[in-house]
Q: What sequence folds into this?
């Protein structure tokens, strides 16, 4: 998955945060694979989950939030992960 694909989805039109997006993408892939298992990176649901998680982390980079205790992960991410868990059992590979 290329940073340009993520930037297009997130509507980012500058290059200043490319390194941050690359780092978040790497970590999002690890996060998802830790919860689901090894997944083919060409799987479209996997790509969508990475983009949603990167977008969430990118938008919520500060350590704390005044007025709210936390930033919940979007429901759409949880729904995609549930689908991936159904299709890929932990420890399986495609």
A:
């Amino acid at each position: 998955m290329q940073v340009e694909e993520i930037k297009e989805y997130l509507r980012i039109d500058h290059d200043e945060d490319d390194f941050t997006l690359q780092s978040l993408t790497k970590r999002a892939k690890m996060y998802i694979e830790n919860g689901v298992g090894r997944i083919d990176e060409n799987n479209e649901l996997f790509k969508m989950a990475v983009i949603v998680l990167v977008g969430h982390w990118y938008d919520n980079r500060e350590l704390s939030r005044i007025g709210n205790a936390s930033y919940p992960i979007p429901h759409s991410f949880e729904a995609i992960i549930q689908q991936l868990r159904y299709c890929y059992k932990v420890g399986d590979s495609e």
User: Anything to note?
Assistant: The mean pLDDT is 86.
